[in-house]
Amino acid sequence: MNQAEKLRQKIADRSVVVGVMGLGYVGLPLVREFCGSGVRVIGFDVDVQKIKMLKAGKTYIEHLPGPFFRKLIQQGLFTPTANMDELDQPDAILICVPTPLDKMREPDMTYIESTTADIARRLRPGQLIVLESTTYPGTTREVVQPVLAATGLELDRDYFLAFSPEREDPGRTDITTRQIPKVVGGASTTSGRLAAALYGLALETVVPVSSCEVAEACKIIENVYRCVNIALVNELKMLFDRMGIDVWEVIEAAKTKPFGYQPFYPGPGLGGHCIPIDPFYLSWKARQYNMPTRFIELAGEINTRMPEYVVAKVMDALNERGKSLKGARVLVLGLAYKKDVDDVRESPSVTLIELLQKRGAKVSYHDPHIPVAKPMREHDITNLRSVPLTPANLKKHDCVLIATDHSRVDYDLVCRHARLVVDTRNAAGRKKRLPGRLVKA
Length: 441
Prior knowledge:
single chain; alpha/beta; Rossmann fold; 2 domains; eight-stranded mixed sheet; five-stranded parallel sheet; 15 helices; 13 strands; about 40% helix; globular
């Protein structure tokens, strides 16, 4: 029996052992779904603190409760570890590591490269490697495969390789990881079939495609679509503001049309690990083909300048009230990049805080999901803690800046006690209780 048949049999009888590289917002949900299907999972992460927390029944992601994973550990279904020497144990390894941009806004492949090197040092016959990290088309074959091939093992004979893009939406409650269709593309036909069979153990719908490049491009196009449309509505917001038109009211009216229109909403900038980053991966790759991607680059330009626009609105609003931004006390509502999560990756709130501080403002924040500012790769505001949202705290600030519209924030309280509200999410705007004290940005 060849290696493909052996692995196919393990998948069929559910004796396959799955390894998940990176126990974050993508990796932990996969652990949950595979273990929930009775498949044993070994979770790998270089952060020893994360491993200790999981073993202690705690997690570092709000919507993924620690006791659930402790129960999986006690049942023997889940083994979290920082020991990379155990990478030869899983039959399938799913790579779920970050793919950020460097300071020149070009793809930073460091995490994929180092993770692949870790796997290659322990690669054994019969293993399936699947990259899930969002990246440019060609990464699986051009970056991952050569490292694995350098071991002397051969694709399809000894090991198997595929790409399956993560489609997580942290905090979403109406659809689970199990229900999100899983696109799978192999570096070969055999690899693609094996990967599709593997995901079929844990997820309801698997969508096989002809190659890893198609699967890579699928995720990119999903996020480029959102990036371009958000940029469009952000630009319209700035135009309509000058025209004295409320863009939020315009969108509510437009979305009554039952066809030909999908609502997108403006904000203070893009956040999360996908939309602010993925389009730049594709525009970088396009340059290798001497192809300009003007829509992508223009959308990126508009979205990345939104925090500056918001700060200018804060400055103008304070000036109209005889107050300089320098020395002003500003309370930022929401540190997370979107409502009802504790995820700060690429959050525009962090950029807003830094811009305000640079201009001399005294900045505090309130976020019911993030009691203490989290360390980030490119930012450091770890000296800040969430302040209580009380009438006294609201009154002592010169401006309250709504950057994230968390459901757990009492906007009635904000409306009653804030001196000035600059609202980037139309959260206070819906209250209609701030005559002369509300500025939409």
